[in-house]
Amino acid sequence: MASGTMPATEGHTLVFGLTADPIHRGHEQVIHNSFAFAQSQGLPIQRFLMVPTYQPNLIAGKQLPRTAFNHRLAMCELVAKAMRKQFKYPVYITDTEKKLFIKNGQKSYSIDTLAAIDAPAKLFVLSADHFAGRWPKFRKWHRWQELVQTNGLLIHQRPGHGLNATFIQQLQAINPHVYVVKDLPAIDVSSTQIRHTGPAMAWQQAWISEPVHQYILTHKLYP
Fold first, then answer.
1. How many other C-beta atoms lie within 10 A of the C-beta of residue 24?
2. Could you give the CA distance from residue 199 to residue 220 in angstroms, rounded to a whole number?
3. How far apart are CA 86 and CA 5, in angstroms?
4. What is the mean pLDDT of the chain?
5. From CA 59, how far away is CA 76, in angstroms rounded?
6. Residue ranges per domain, the chain?
7. Which CATH superfamily is domain 12-188 in?
8. 122-127 vs 91-93, strand pairing mode
9. What is the pLDDT of residue 199?
10. What are phi and psi of 156, to 5 degrees?
């Protein structure tokens, strides 16, 4: 179950998987852009779910999370709470991946996580770097074609990652609910950058919110 009180209105559930090690302003901008795009396209949104990874299946040189799941979940909750209060966005957190790991005793793939989320219409929120280049990384995902058949995609353009237009068209032929979010603000920051810099610099508002910064300091997460 996601945190907070869930709205009962109809609409799409946006599902945003992230490591959140730590969650930063770039992640927040994705949320802003998702709601702005949905409004411009007349897409009703029931809720936006952040799904922190638990034991992710790694591809393309990704590394395991450095920080314990409970801390990453808590930092996401701080951001979700602030967005609900300040912007009235229906943003919530779910520990679905942890529950799946406990239930099955093994890592879950994105298609499994999406299937475990109870919602009639889901849009999987992803970054453009998975859909860039001659051989997009998304083609290496487990059961990627089935994932697209059963879930829409909301692909956010990212600086330095040009989309493979032909591949996007192929995805839209599988499912017309494949959308590309473009020409909206982007914040060029990464969790890796923040971890390497440490809390002495990461407090900057251009990188992370003040509640997340205070949480990092209190729990001494990135010395």
1. 24
2. 9
3. 16
4. 90
5. 23
6. 12-188
7. HUPs (3.40.50.620)
8. unpaired
9. 61
10. -100, 125
- Amino acid of residue 11: G
Give the DSSP per-residue string, the chain. --SSPPP---SEEEEEEE--TT--HHHHHHHHHHHHHHHHHT--EEEEEEEE-SSPPP-TT----SS-HHHHHHHHHHHHHHHHHHH---EEE--HHHHHHHHHSS---HHHHHHHS--SSEEEEEEGGGGBSSS-GGGGSTTHHHHHHHSEEEEEPBTTB-B-HHHHHHHHHH-S-EEEE-SS------HHHHHHH-HHHHT-TTTS-HHHHHHHHHHT---
pLDDT (tens digit per residue) in 76-96: 999 999 999 999 999 999 999
Which two tokens mark 21? 């090690």
Token digits for 19? 């490591």
Q: Which two tokens stand for residue 201?
A: 């610099």
Which amino acid, residue 178?
V
